[in-house]
Model the fold of this input.
Amino acid sequence: MSRKNGINQIESTEIWDIIIIGGGATGLGAAVEATTRGYKTLLLEQYDYTIGTSSRSTKLVHGGVRYLAQGNVPLVFEALKERGLLLKNAPHLVSNKPFLIPSYKWWYKPFYTFGLTIYDLLSGRSRFGTSRPYSREKTLEKIPTIKKLNLRGSILYHDGQFDDARLGVNLAQTIIDNNGTALNYMKVTEFLKENNKIKGVFAKDGETGTVYEIKAKAVLNATGVFVDSIIQKDNPKTKNVIKPSQGVHIVIDNKFLQSDYALMIPKTRDGRVLFAVPWHNKVILGTTDVPKDEALIEPRATKEEIDFILETAGRYLEIKPSRADIKSVFAGLRPLAAPKTDAKGKTKEISRSHKIIISESGLVSIIGGKWTTYREMGEDAIDKLVALFNLPKRESISEELHIHGYKE
Done:
C-alpha cells in the first residue's frame, strides 16, 4: 500500500488496460475483478477509500427481506448468493447475525414465517440459519427490552453483519496483492480524448498538486452518487442518471436492546423497515430513505430524520431512546438509478439493481447496487469492458477469491 510505488507505476506505465474511477464498494470490487483476471489495472480515488456511502451502511450483508415483500425475487436471489460468497471469502469480516421480527397481531407469525421460509429456500446451501416462529416468552428471553404490551411473539431469521470500512481497505489491499495499483487522493480532473473517444484521464495528486496524463484502453466510472459529475466531465449536456437517497443511522447505548440479537421492524409508518442492530457494544438504529437533489461528500442528517428513527424505535422498545441518548449520527447517500417515470419522490420504489451505462465517448459507468452485491457488480462491469474494448477474455475467479486478511 505504498503511495510512492503507486506513483512510480503511473509514471512508468505507458498504457493501462483499465482505469477505474472511485474507491468505494463498486470501484474496489471492479478493480479486484480486473486485477485478478490479469488486466493491468489502476484505481483512482479522490479522497479516502470508502469515504462516502460505502462506510455509512447499516453494517449488514443481506438479501433484502423488504425486496422479497416487494416481489423482487431475482434481486433477493442474487444478493443471497453474494451474501454466502462474502461469508466464505471474508469470514474475518462477515458473521451470522440473528434477527427477530416482533409480532403484535395474530397473523404476523404465519405471514412472516412463510415469507422467511422462502428467503431461506432462496439462500440454498449458503443459508445462514433456519427461520422459525418464537413464543412471547422466547422473544423476551432473547430481547428483554422489546415492548411487552400486546406482544404475541416474534419470527427469527438470519442475515450477515460486516465491517464495511474495513472490507473496503481489505479490498484495496487485495488489489495490491494481485499486482494492481490503487491510489487515493488522486482526483480525475478531465478525460484524455482522441477523435471524441476516451483514451485515458488527467489526474491531480492531492498531496503534490502534480497532474498526470494517464492512458488506458478502457475507463470505468464507479463513483457512486458522483457518477453524474464524472459523466458530465465527458459530456456536460448529459442528463442525471442518479437519484440520491439519504440513509441516516444513529448510535445509542446497548442498554436499549440488551441483546446480541438484532431487531427488525418490518413496516414503519411510511412503509419501510427499521433495524436495531448490536454493533461494538452499542446499537445502530436506522435507516431512513429520503430523496435528495444533490450529492454531497458529507451529507447531514436532518432533525426530521433523527426524530423519525427515535419515534419509530421508541414504539417497539420498553426504554424509549431520546436525543440525549444519541452517541453519534452518520448519513450516507445511496446511488440509486433514477427512474424513467416519476416515482413521486418515493425512493423505496426505485430499483436497487445495478445498471451499466455506455457513453458515446466510450466511458462506461456503473450505477445502483449495494455492498452485498459489490462482487457481482464488478464482474458485470469488467465483462462489459472486455467486450467493448476487445481485451483478452479471461475467466472470473472472484467467487473463489479470499479477501486480504482472510482467516478461517
Notes: Residues 73-89 form the longest helix (17 residues). The first strand starts at residue 16 and ends at 21. Confidence is low (pLDDT under 50) at residues 347-351. Residues 339 and 350 are 6 Å apart (CA to CA).
